[in-house]
Description:
The protein is of the alpha+beta class and about 160 residues long. It has a domain at about 45-150. The chain contains one helix and eight strands, in the order αββββββββ. The strands form two sheets. A five-stranded antiparallel sheet has the order 1-2-3-4-5, covered by helices on one side. It has a three-stranded antiparallel sheet with strand order 6-7-8, covered by helices on one side. β4 and β5 (about 110-115) form a beta hairpin. The relative contact order is 0.10.
Amino acid sequence: xxxxxxxxxxxxxxxxxxxFTLIECLFALLLLSIICMLFSATIKNATVVTTQLKxxxxxxxxxxxxxxxxxxxxxxxxxxxxxKIILRNKQxxxxxxxxxxxxxIVKVENGGYHPLLMEVKEANFREDGNCVMIEVIFxxxxxxxxxxIIPKEHNYE
Length: 157
């Protein structure tokens, strides 16, 4: 009896498949998931930063209001123009004004100025009866308003 052997021929030709291996696909999915997690974390942090900036602007506004009130105590009111309030210092009888210019609200006195409020997009000063209204819009579009009642010692014109 003859033994028949089955021999497999090895060919030097290798079939080449173009495509990704399973490990390459898993690695790509891992990278994609990491990018998505970072993107969602960035969006969450952006909302937190926005609310903090808004709260910082509100704090700056409150400090500004306190500074204006203190300035008004030491001065007498003269008149209001669209971009400024003109006062007279009670101690030295010199003019002092609070005005909006170049994105800031500043106090101008004796030739120098002191910035009171920064990053202001728009400001409007107006006299309304016995009140002065200050309306401010910050660069982040936060709009605030202050109403100051003119003391009775002022002669209304």
